[in-house]
Each structure stands twice: as structure tokens, then as C-alpha cells.
Amino acid sequence: MQYTTTIQNLIDAFSSLPGIGARSAERIAFHLLKLPSEEALSLARAIHDLKTRITHCSVCYNLAELSSEGPALCEVCRDARRDRSTICVVEQPKDLLAIDASGTYHGLYHVLLGRVAPLDGTDESDLTIGGLLERLEGGEVREVIFGTNPNLDGDLTLLSMQKTIGERFPGIALTRLARGLAAGTQIEYANRSVLDDAIRGRQSLSTEGR
After folding, report:
1. Does residue 44 form part of some domain?
2. How far apart are CA 195 and CA 104, in angstroms?
3. pTM for this one?
4. Domain carrying residue 36
């Protein structure tokens, strides 16, 4: 016996999500069938809101809620208490959340929404580096901290930006998170103490070759 088309479509949809296999998808689908209609539909509304109300911050490209009052701004960019002389550059919003949760860093961020990865066909033009350079034009920023992941693509991204920023803004200090982060790890999975050490022990980048 096969499931009805509607049930099978739901199971297939859940199966396409990361970390959910066919059996788990089946259990979730039948759990939703048992729920009261209002509870099940609240999940549908939450997904709808996610896709219609969430966008990228107009300044730093972090996740933000759409607003009818003007350009979308994330909570970090709206916070007047933040140190606006420092920007930490990360690959994804998840990395921003991980670093900010450490409670050590109180500056601003810039989210690249990716990384330089030649094997994947991704280069600087696919990232939000242009937006970062525009922010640096204002002259308020004194330090850029590179918080890219400590792996091959992350290091390639760092080197590419180091050259670009170093040539255009020689007065800005360029640093990177300390190698308390083990090579090959992902920032989003690092615990708070490791991130705290990495931020406090960030390293100055050489200006040679600018």
C-alpha cells in the first residue's frame, strides 16, 4: 500500500531537509496529521513568515526583519552601544551569532554570505566585499577583524580581502582571530571559551606585499 499523494509529497519535502532521513520524515508527517489543525497550521505560517519577512541587513548582510519604516537593519547595526570603529568579517550569519554569543566582542560585523572557493566557482565578486569597502570609505573604522573559518577556503578569502583592503585603506589595522580555533573547524560549532580566546588573542596581519 502506498501513501496518498498529499502525504507522500509532505514526506518527500521533509526528506529533502538536511539531517532528516526517510523514516524521520515519515514520523514527522504523521505527527502533524495527529496535531490539531491550528497547531499544524502555525508551523506553516512560521515557514511563510520566514520566507516573506526575513531578509539581509542593508548594512552588514546579517539576517534582519523587513520593515515598512525604511531599509532593513539587524539588531547589531541598530545597537548604538556598539563600537563602530571595529568590524568583524564572517562568512555566514551563523558565525556572527556564535562570536557574539561569546560576549567578548562588542563591535560591528560584516557577513560575506560565502567564501572564496575556486573549486566551487566562487570568487570575490560573489561575496559582499563591495558593501564592506563602502563602509570603510566613511573613515570611522579603525580595525577589521577577519573571522573567516580556519580552513583552506577561509584562508584564501582572508588573503584576498587583506590585499584589497590593505591597498585601499592602509591606515586600517587588519587582524585575524587567533588560532585557538583549530584548523579545519567551523566557527558555528566552536564553544564560547574557544571563541573568547580567539577574539582576545587575535593576531595582526602583516602589511608586507601591499
Report:
1. yes
2. 8
3. 0.80
4. 5-52
